[in-house]
Design goal:
The protein is an alpha/beta fold and 383 residues long. It folds into two domains: 253 residues, Rossmann fold; 125 residues, no CATH class. It has nine helices and 15 strands. The strands form three sheets. Strands 2-1-5-6-7-4 form a six-stranded antiparallel β-sheet, covered by helices on one side. A six-stranded mixed β-sheet has the order 8-12-13-3-14-15, with helices on both faces. It has a three-stranded antiparallel β-sheet with strand order 9-10-11. β10 and β11 form a beta hairpin. It is globular.
Amino acid sequence: MIKNYNLHNFKIHDNTNLELGRITLLTGVNGMGKSSVIQSMLMLRESYIKRDLPDNLNLRGDSFYVGLSSNIVNWNPTDDAKHLVIELTATDYGEKNADKCRFSFNYLAPDKTYLESNPDDTSYDAARLKSISLFNKDFQYLSAFRYGPMEDYQSDEIYVDQNRQISKSRGRGEYGIYFLEKFGSENIPIPQLNYNPETETDLSLKRQVELWMNEIAEGTSLKIDQTGNQYKLKLAFRRQGKSPFWVDALNTGFGISYTLSLLTAILSSKPGALILLENPEAHIHPAAQAGLMRLISLAAAYGVQFIIETHSDHIVNGALVGLKREILPADSVSIYFFERDTDSYNALPTKMEISEECRITNGPDGFFTQLQSDMEVLFGFRN
């Protein structure tokens, strides 16, 4: 589990330090550096997996693209702008044996697609690095660009069969259906995520994904048809007194397909895994967002770490509800609101204070206040 993450001299981040929880929510208005935090983690991960780290940091990869070094240098640094520094502190699943890692890279000419390491300012235990989920198979990334309904879905024996990854290209979840078909008969690694623990005995991944899909669209069933290397998703909705009517995924809304890869990623994760999510609220209604956060809270309670970028107050409230209902341990949720410093123009993240009543006590102006503002207009308190 990553406990601390420091980002120095990267895009809008001059010196950003984040204390991460089992669930960390990155909120704030657009263009304030939330996605850049996730992007920097992907840069480290891919550079390590492709064996370029520690010598080089790639700026172009399968899961991210920043282009050239001129695109990522901080535009208004308060000190030395010649180095990009990323520091993280991680613990094992039992939150013991802390490992501190510091990666320092030199900014080269502006037309470079990589950064060279600064070895004098880089320190980490190479033998322990692969035990951190950011650098191993216990990891999933799903971006805001993930696949919706498709005529056919792809397969990949290396990314899925060997590395158990749902995404390759930009976190799109393009292998979610193949992953579900490949590993659907396996039991979920965390049995406490059983949707109906009192009555359901089938703990297979496919069955549990289908059950949790009821939080998104009640009465949904799914099946996967294979033709060669292509996989077709079909969905049905239970009808009282009638047999289900199966339709291709293309003939259903975006919400079901968009969420299917999320459910598959969460339910297939082991304790100690790390999941990066962008906008999990996309295309699903508020009640479904609350249901999704119930699953995320349960998974976090049993050791899965989530770093989530979101613009939804329902996602934020879902994490607080998880605390209130004691699904999550106290102090296991970190919520940040990203603003821009008016003088330096750099990112200014503020960690929200959560009271014993599981309420945010220091919410700044703009922290999900639009509903209140609209109500004041509708009820005539202001124009």
